Amino acid sequence: MFTMLLLPLLLVCALMASQASAFPKRHMVNLPPYLQNIKRSDTGNYQIPSDVHNGSSKAVFDIETTTSTLTTSTLLSLDAPKLDSINGSVFDWWYFDVVSEANPDDSVTVTFFSSTVEAFPFLAANQSSILTAWIWASFANGTVVADYVPATVATVTGVDGTHTEGSGHWFPTGFGWGASTAPQTRYVVSIASEKIQVHGRLTLTATVPYHLPCGVQKDKSILEIAPHIGWVNAVPDAVGVVDMNIRGSSLKFQGPGYHDKNWSDRPFMESVESWYWGHGRLGPYSIVWFSFLSLNDTTNSTYVSSYVAKDGNVLVSACDEKLLTVRPIGAPGTTGGRYPPKVGDVPEGFHLDYDLGEEIGHLKVNVSTRALVAGDGEYYGRWTGELVGEVVKPGNDTRGACSSDSGNGSDAEEISLVGVAVFEQFVVVE
Ligand SMILES: *[C@@H]1O[C@H](CO)[C@@H](O)[C@H](O)[C@H]1NC(C)=O
Ligand SMILES: *[C@@H]1O[C@H](CO)[C@@H](O)[C@H](O)[C@H]1NC(C)=O
Ligand SMILES: *[C@@H]1O[C@H](CO)[C@@H](O)[C@H](O)[C@H]1NC(C)=O
Ligand SMILES: *[C@@H]1O[C@H](CO)[C@@H](O)[C@H](O)[C@H]1NC(C)=O
Ligand SMILES: *[C@@H]1O[C@H](CO)[C@@H](O)[C@H](O)[C@H]1NC(C)=O
Ligand SMILES: *[C@@H]1O[C@H](CO)[C@@H](O)[C@H](O)[C@H]1NC(C)=O
Ligand SMILES: *[C@@H]1O[C@H](CO)[C@@H](O)[C@H](O)[C@H]1NC(C)=O
Ligand SMILES: *[C@@H]1O[C@H](CO)[C@@H](O)[C@H](O)[C@H]1NC(C)=O
Ligand SMILES: *[C@@H]1O[C@H](CO)[C@@H](O)[C@H](O)[C@H]1NC(C)=O
Ligand SMILES: *[C@@H]1O[C@H](CO)[C@@H](O)[C@H](O)[C@H]1NC(C)=O
What is the 186 CA–ligand 1 centroid distance (Å)? Predict the structure, then answer.
């Protein structure tokens, strides 16, 4: 079995090294015939059919973690489908983005969905397949291109926990990704679609370690970031490079890149009251935020996941709600800053407050919106934007009468930390 695998792997490496124009397709020789459910072969390759499964779907919400850091092959297994079938009320998807560090109005997001529109209502109402590959591209002049291609079958390979290279393809859309986790984590998302006139690639070379909702835990790590919501963040920050041609226009830039996947065993709208998420980089800091209120939650919890790395070293990767506060900022005279938010509240930015512990203090970040890249302006928005932050040391006098920076102010260690971000909000409560 080992030798059977080796040959295609070597072939892929050789093609990658020679910079083949499209990312090479993995040989699918070991796949079983197309069946009703998601099928996993002996070699850990998955096939997802395009029609809705009639029956119950089972989700996985944890992962065995016998070591305190994930091995390169476990890391790749984070990309495995997390449901055994896609019925009308579940979803599973793979998300990639890059935003330009020079001008955050330039961005590209690519998402590979396996979901009905009943489970995730932000998909196209008339989609003909549960498998769709989407792209959102924003240009500096304000133009946003959003489009998708339905697939007839999807494959996800190399994610059985023994490989360091893998791939995903939504056939025959021309959308796919290739991944390698050794010697470093790298993803190439490639698109070759005549149908929507998009050609090119998005490359992520990770600059920081992976992020699980609550970090790596002993024996088993939780992947359920909030009730019924699964999340793994293989690439919290990366050197992202976009080189695409979109409907005749060239789009090329570099900046912070990101990859995660999320899934659920029930419809999105039954889980979410509000959902804030984003990622970005400012100075040496790579950040990811997630803050979520669950619909009809009797415990009144705020579900958060906090991630900060400095120069590639993780400072926090945890889900304790005391470690991160995310609050909307509204323009004067609007409800944009209301918290908890209601449908139609459109913020002009967010305040983030990361607790990095007594030694370091707090990383405080203001996020301000630039381009609206996706969304309906009511229930959902995805923006690119700018970040301004500072690290505030645990001062002895921060609540005192004069905490100004006059003299040798010791509160703000670093001022003018600036950067760019991609972020979202979903608000479902009327
Ligand atoms: C789904 O399965 C149920 C029970 O097996 C069956 O009664 C029903 O007709 C099926 N629906 C479709 C659309 O196949
Ligand atoms: C899909 O599976 C989930 C989880 O098992 C179940 O709760 C739900 O009722 C199923 N939905 C349909 C439409 O069969
Ligand atoms: C779906 O609807 C959109 C607009 O509502 C339309 O542009 C598109 O062509 C439709 N797609 C199909 C497959 O009918
Ligand atoms: C904006 O840029 C895009 C991509 O280059 C181009 O297709 C579009 O025509 C431009 N729009 C305007 C109003 O200049
Ligand atoms: C969920 O999916 C969205 C894509 O719509 C992605 O932007 C986000 O990072 C994911 N977050 C979580 C916490 O699941
Ligand atoms: C949440 O609660 C409201 C009213 O309390 C109810 O109308 C709604 O059906 C509930 N939603 C879910 C998903 O339980
Ligand atoms: C629930 O949380 C909200 C927001 O933090 C707060 O305003 C409210 O008082 C809390 N309600 C209860 C019953 O604890
Ligand atoms: C963030 O915005 C607030 C005002 O809303 C301001 O007081 C604070 O200084 C800003 N922080 C930074 C780092 O710019
Ligand atoms: C704060 O400073 C005062 C006077 O400089 C000192 O007496 C006090 O112990 C300090 N408190 C802490 C918590 O460091
Ligand atoms: C400010 O404090 C730093 C150390 O925290 C010290 O090196 C520097 O000399 C001080 N500057 C002034 C003007 O007091």
Answer: 42
